[in-house]
Design a protein that fits this description.
By secondary structure, this protein is α+β, with helices and mostly antiparallel strands. The chain contains 4 helices and 8 strands, in the order H-E-E-E-E-E-E-H-E-E-H-H. About 25% of the residues lie in helices and about 35% in strands. The two termini are about 20 Å apart.
């Protein structure tokens, strides 16, 4: 979810960019990063995305599941990130909201009931009463603090 949040606000909190040829072997990549620091791989055929670097292994974007990077050699960019703890916490809150409201978000209806006769109300596509709401709508005010106009 953290990567989706960063994509949405156009801000990965890039600290340093390293461009060159990289080799991923044994699920690991040698990087000048701190243990627990997040990084972004760009230009890879198999491993593009956000990860968390640990001396003992790589984890997914929310630092909860160990992942093995797929073996490859590529020329691309690796960005060392400095994502603020508040953004990481907000991404966790958003994930919880999405997990709780997933069925409602994905439903084409806003209201279904069975009271003798089946009836439903179709979603209008907007937000608010009678419309659908996404995590982007619900958390827009909180996310705007870190929003950028475009990626740099």
């Amino acid at each position: 979810m953290l990567q989706q949040v960063c994509e949405h606000i156009h801000n990965y909190f890039i600290q340093n960019r390293y461009e060159g040829k990289y080799e991923i072997a044994g699920g690991m990549i040698s990087l000048p990063l701190l243990d627990g620091q997040r990084f972004l791989i760009q230009g890879s055929a198999l491993n593009d995305g956000m990860y968390t670097y640990h001396d003992a292994g790589i984890k997914n974007d929310d630092d909860s599941v160990a992942v093995g990077l797929r073996a490859e050699t590529f020329t691309g960019t690796i960005c060392a990130l400095a994502v603020p703890p508040a953004v990481i916490a907000l991404a966790g809150e958003i994930k919880t909201w999405v997990d709780t409201n997933g069925e409602i978000i994905n439903s084409p209806y806003t209201n279904e009931s069975v009271l003798g006769v089946y009836s439903y109300t179709k979603a209008s596509g907007g937000t608010g009463a009678g419309g659908s709401v996404s995590w982007m709508d619900v958390y827009a005010t909180q996310l705007n603090r870190w929003r950028k106009v475009a990626f740099l």
